[in-house]
Amino acid sequence: MSETDKKIIIAIDGYSSSGKSSMARALASAIGYRYVDSGAMYRAVTLWGLRHGLVIDGKVDEDAIVAALPEINIDFLPIAGEGQHTLLDGEDVEREIRSLRVSDNVSQVAVIPAVRHHLVELQQRFGDEKGIVMDGRDIGTTVFPQAEMKVFVDASAETRARRRFLELQEKGVESAYEDVLANVRQRDHIDTTRAESPLVKASDAVSLDNSEMTIAEQNKWLIDLYHRTLDALI
Ligand code: DC
Q1: 213-233: pLDDT as tens digits
Q2: Rounded to an integer, what distance in angstroms lies between the CA atom of residue 133 and that of residue 150?
Q3: Cβ–ligand 1 contact at 123 (below 6 Å)
Q4: 38 lines ligand 1 (CB under 6 A)
Q5: Three-state SS at 58
C-alpha cells in the first residue's frame, strides 16, 4: 500500500490560541485531508445561546440550551484557500464566533456535559471515513481515542494572548491586550479543571511547545510527524 492510500485520523489538542487550528488547517490542506475545528462548534452553540438570551455575561441557562440542541444546526462550508467557514442554521457566522463576546462565554457552555456529548457525537461522524484532521481539547482523549496520530500543543499564556490579540487586530475586532490575556487565562483554568473531559494530554500524544517556533517551522514539524506516523503503520 502506498503512503497516500492509507487514510488516518489526526487529533491536535492544546490550549486556546496555541496556534493549533492554523497548524491543523495547513496540514489538512497539504495532505488533502478534511479539516474540522471542533472549537468552532462550541462557539456556534454559544453564539446561538447569546442570540436567544440563554447566555448572558457568563451565566448560562443550561436546561434551555440542552433542550434546544437538536434544533441548533451546525455545518461547515469549505472556502477555497481559506479552509472552511462555520455555518449556524445556514448563516455564515465565522467572524462572529471569534468575537470576544463569544470567547468570554464559550468555556461556560463547553462545560455542560450534555452539550459535550451532543457535539462529540457529531464530531465522531466526521471521522467515519478517516482522512481527517480535527483540533480541539479532547480529540485525542474522548472524540478519537483510536486516532493514529495525536499532537498536544502548548505555549505560554503571554505568547498565546499576543497571537490572539494580533489575530483580532488583523480581523478589525477591537480589543485590549490585557483583556485578551485575562480571557486566555480564564479559559485555561476552566478548560483544565472541568469535570467532563478536561483538557489533558493523551498518554500517546506527542507534545509540541511552539512558543519559539515560526509558523513554517511548526508546519514542517507536523508534516514530518505525519510521514513518520504513516511509515510506522505501513
Ligand atoms: O479552540 P477554541 O478557542 O476555538 O475553543 C473554544 C472553546 O471551546 C474553548 O474554551 C474550549 C472549548 N472546546 C472544548 O471544550 N473542546 C473542544 N474539543 C474544543 C473546544
Answers
A1: 999 999 999 999 999 999 998
A2: 10
A3: no
A4: yes
A5: coil
